[in-house]
Amino acid sequence: MSEHKRIEGIAAPLLIDNLDTDQIMPKQFLRTITKEGLDRGALFDLRFHPDGGTKPDFVLNRPEYKDARILVGGANFGCGSSREHAVWGLQQLGVEAVIAPSFGEIFFSNALNNRLLLIVLEQEQIALLLQASALNGHRLLIDLEQMQLSCGSLAFPFTLAERHRKMIVEGLDMVGATLQLLPEIVAFEKRHAAASPWARVLPMDEGNHGQIA
Amino acid sequence: MPPRTLYKKLVDSHTVAVLDEQHVLLYADLHIMNEYTSPQAFSSLRAARRGVLRPRQQLAVVSHIILTHPVSVAQRVILDPASALQASNLKRNCREFGIKLFDTNHEQQGIEHIIAPEHGWIRPGMVVLCGDSHTTTYGALGALGFGVGTSEVEHILATQTLVYRLAQDLRIRVDGVLPVGTSVKDLILLIIARVGAQGARGYAVEFAGSTIAALSAEARMTLCNMAVEAGARAALIRPDQTTYDYIREKAQDLGEQDFAQALGDWRQLYSDEGAVFAVEHVFAAQEVAPFVTWGTSPDQAIAVNALIPDPLLAGDAHAAAATAQALQYMGLSAGSAIAGLPIDRVFIGSCTNGRIEDLRIAAAIVKGQQVAPAVRAMVVPGSGAVRRQAEQEGLAAIFIAAGFEWRQPGCSMCLAMNDDVLAPGERCASTTNRNFEGRQGRGGRTHLMSPAMAAAAALSGCISDVRTLEKQHV
Questions:
Q1: pTM of the complete model
Q2: Alpha-carbon distance B129 to B32, whole Å?
Q3: Which of B108, B5, B106, B98 is nearest to B54 (CA)?
Q4: How many whole angstroms separate alpha carbon B32 and alpha carbon B25?
Q5: Are residues A79 and A96 in the same domain?
Q6: How far does the CA of residue B37 sit from the closest CA of chain A (Å)?
Q7: Selecting from 3.30.70.140, 3.30.499.10, 3.10.20.30, 3.40.190.10, what CATH number does the domain B6-166+241-265 have?
Q8: What is the pLDDT of residue B397?
Q9: Is the ipTM of this complex over 0.90?
Q10: Would you tell me which residues 344-403 of chain B have a C-beta closer than 8 angstroms to some C-beta of chain A?
Q11: B149 neighbourhood in chain A, CB within 8 Å
């Protein structure tokens, strides 16, 4: 079974409702033009004291959760700013999946575009899952073929749009896929420009597709 | 055709292809970029040896990292090496791909959500995307605008489209006249407090009703700007005469004949009679009072004369813990009054409240008064044009005479990516959109409020009911 069809590992509870992306990736780590080094910034204020010292009580700093691959979050996880750095940072911390009752809208798309698996489960199911995992070394198993989340004998089915499942499992080149539809895009543009000329607010280019040689 | 909502009409008119039951390929008329959510998109584009499909439908601004020191624009030099690299990198990307850039020293420079409407580039019926969550602002003019991530920025650059997950329709009706001393900022804080930080998650919100119809174009921008704080994917207001007049004034490139044709199209942009909304909320304008946030989420807001809530009364254990955590971070105790709370800083600006109308409201309160001695107060106009207009109207002189710092435009202390930052423990009366933990600086404490309330806080040195302040001075 391929890596992306199965995620098995330690799940860390981070049960904060409305955990915004400012907290997941604070501003000082956004002054970058690459994706590198964001592991340091992920959940920074929760993980570290202002002097840089580690907060020993924070879940990801506790020895039993050190190698967590799954986060179990609160409602509206990843709300707020559109910064995709939040997703990159979590992944660089080793997180491969987040389970929560709901997710912020832009974060949801950002996560899937980077193959960070997001699973929506009811609050009660999450509570049961955490109880079970506590007895099982905090380990969970996510099976993307069975679309099932389990811990020992406890198992919950979950749903994921087929498009999203494929994105996670196969890692689609979204831009490449859309570029296959370029003739449709160009045809749409012609119709649209004729029907709504007022929507061209900056002068249109002269058909130069800006391709670098 | 069955009755459609305004949202559905906008999606339909920009659908290039239906991908599955939940997703369409959505065409973007305009794409706006900033320096911090676009660099990795350009890098990925280059790595894949792809180009920008429609460079002339892209606009780029340096907004978040820019310094706002009260020197001339020409003297603005970004000293922080990482920020300077972001600015020069954006310049390089724009030059290489032929994209229009409002650079650091450009006289039109400012915040994307202020610049784009003030040039008349946001029009009813358009789809406008930007790597910034407050792109919902453009719904104020009847355009479908929403924030995207960096991967999506790359997708738009290469294809001028977005793989778009459809939202459901939610309508928020507000009828009646806003009470004296309140503004649209108080209204949106009330709405977010009532529906919750995720109450509109998964929805495109249409604001309707007589209160909304009476709002100016700029006030509507404040409303739609903050809809994202209730989780909304987009916010919309039906275009009307107010919208047309605003665009007529701003859109220099639109000739008489173009405008007449556009009007014909724009008049079709409304939710049809019988169009179905999955959810509807109704509010009365009379319910609105000056609102202030007490916590660390925009939905943790109360009327200025109310008491700070008690975690024990917060419903379930989960909510109680969140309330207790917010109170601890904010250094507040349950059951105490929010009015009278001393503040250290005042920030008037941001894409929520950095427009000329906001500055007029604040200046009217400040006029002839002095900022309280212990307070450091700053006004950061949303754009170069707003700044110049405020200077011409004498607003800048009022702020300066009162002891405010009159600064250069930018996002500034809304998210504190530049050097306008709260120190740990500092308490700020802020006209911005987010009071998240650490948002305006680690350990900083943000109270969101209207420009009028922020002005009142600056004068009195504490959170104050602007209505009583006005009475004292009349």
A1: 0.96
A2: 6
A3: B98
A4: 18
A5: yes
A6: 6
A7: 3.30.499.10
A8: 98
A9: yes
A10: none
A11: 82-84, 87, 106, 109-110, 113
